[in-house]
Amino acid sequence: MSAFAVNPEFLRNARIQLRPGRAIAAAVICAAISLTIWYSFESRSAQSVAVDAIEMFKFILQMQAFVLLVGGGIYELLSVHREKELNTFDFQRVTRLTAFELAVGKLFGAPILTYLIVLCFMPIAIFAAVVGHAPLVLVVEAYAILLVGCIAFHVLGLLISTALGHGVSAIAVLPYLILVVFTSVDFFTTQGPGLSPSASTWTVHQLNPFAATAMFAKDTPRGLSDLFFGVSVPHFAVLMVIYVTLIAWFLLAIVRNLKRDPAVYELYSPMQAFGFAIYLNLLMLGFFNWKAPLGPPYMVDGQITGFAAFPARSVETMLLASSFWLFALLGIILLRKREQVRRRIQSLGEGAAGIWAALWPAPYVFAGMIAVGIAIVELIRVYRNPAPNEWDWGLATATIAFYTLWVARDLLYLQWMGLRRTRRPLGSAIIYLLVFYTCTGIIFGVAHVLLRQSSAPYSAMLIPSGISSLSIEEWTASYQIWLVVPAVLAAQVLLFAFLQRQKLREFITPAVVAPVVTPRKPSLMTR
Fold first, then answer.
1. Contact (Cβ atoms closer than 8 angstroms) between residue 116 and residue 23
2. Residue 97 has what DSSP assignment?
3. Quick check: helix, strand or coil at residue 306?
4. Are 250 and 152 in contact (CB under 8 A)?
């Protein structure tokens, strides 16, 4: 507590958010809501006191989670944005506070009003827990999930607010809310009649702080459990590990950039970004149900009676597609801006426009995708042991090469386009890429190119199609043509690398502008 008492940024935010009028109004509203909840509880029958008290405690816990997660997250998303709008952020960057102290002050100072609201609801929550005879261990675990989980989301909100430019942080509120909704889904649930939870595709329960109420589920008296590579792990332990590690990753990026010039922000170093992508892939592979993932449903008289298991080929393509997006995120993090390239050239000279720089950020994506692809194939062999008629090693290897070259090609395109001298080069490049995929997909769809086996390899040279739905029989019949697809993608990768190297050379040898010579007026001595 003494660290907060001497943190100027925390005290400044506390004075702004906890003005007497605002704090008193929040306390009065919380008291009125608490009295209303207590009155509704007192009006019920005495036979179901304990059950009703537990339900009341879960309701209050959900309100606290909503206020702290959503309200506090929005405060964090707007924290740096507000400073940039007021033109006070540059003054904070040059203060004597370290980046860590400034980050901690914003992290706990900006949403301090939501912490006050949560504290105001604690008396009625404790009353409900005591009356409902809630186990003390579960209450402590629930509030640990609530507190640590909200801090993890707050750190993410602060990182987004720091990374985005002036005047656009408010746009991130909607994606943040979508992330909250997505992580509210319980993935480890029964998905059809007669199916046990062990048949789920993913073996992890709800991931956001709303999971605190699941600690008191009636059908799980021993608490929820997840499966990590087939090993049962308490859900509380899973959440704590994920929250703490994500806090460390996000806080690392904030401290690394908070006091830098926004023009040269670099969220992570290349190895840090590579490690973060591998960490996310580890979570994805670990919580995948390797033993019994669900596939297409069985339909009888228009009703679902069961689900088929995913074949090994579908498991590979699904996980590679998920890994594709994670490494696309890695590549976007590693993209260099014009100012970063200019500073590298000033320090490295000709070396800043070499082969490695021309291929940036493809080498890290190549290494990561190939490593994860090999891990997926090995896990399929260990857990599924597919029969020869449902698995082909050549097709599996070609699929890994396809996804690797595909993500490398698009990232090299974005890096090349991002070096142009325009206002928002990366945003324009992403829009052009989306337009290309949309228009090409519509044209191929109208011409039925994607559905014909004979033309599928040629369409796959431009857009990601065909290879994911390619069966073993089709591969065996026309694998010679399909082997051309990775070769064409590799040629496209080299083309964008060449274009990027040409753009880097422009930074080293800028265009020479001829000086303008103005004629001098004759002096009095020459007349």
1. yes
2. S
3. strand
4. yes
Q: Reduce the DSSP state of residue 505 to 3 states and report it.
A: helix
Q: Write the pLDDT tens digit of every residue in 295-337.
A: 555 444 555 445 556 788 888 888 998 999 899 888 888 888 8
pTM of the model: 0.86
Question: What does the DSSP assignment read for 19-62?
Answer: -HHHHHHHHHHHHHHHHHHHHHHHTS-GGGHHHHHHHHHHHHHH
Distance CA 101, CA 95 (A): 11
**Angle, alpha carbons 64-69-73 (nearest 5°):** 140
- Read off the tokens for 481: 């043509």
Six token digits for residue 43: 């009006």
**Mean pLDDT of the region 422-441:** 86
Q: What percent of the chain has pLDDT over 90?
A: 32
Exposure string (b/e) for 397-415, b if CB count within 10 Å is 16 or more? ebbbbbbbbbbbbbbbbbb
Which of the residue ranges 26-35, 134-143, 363-372, 515-524 would you say has the lowest mean pLDDT?
Answer: 515-524
- For the chain, state the CA radius of gyration: 28
Q: Are 113 and 17 in contact (CB under 8 A)?
A: yes
At 193, is the pLDDT very low, low, confident or very high (cuts 50, 70, 90)?
very low
Asked whether the beta carbons of 500 and 341 are under 8 A apart, the reply is no
Strand partners, 297: 307
Distance CA 342, CA 507 (A): 7
- The tokens describing 366, both together, are 């190549």
Residues with Cβ < 8 Å from 273, sequence gap 6 or more? 267, 330, 333, 334, 364
Task: Decide: residue 316, CB within 10 A, 0-12 exposed, 13-18 middle, 19+ buried.
Answer: buried
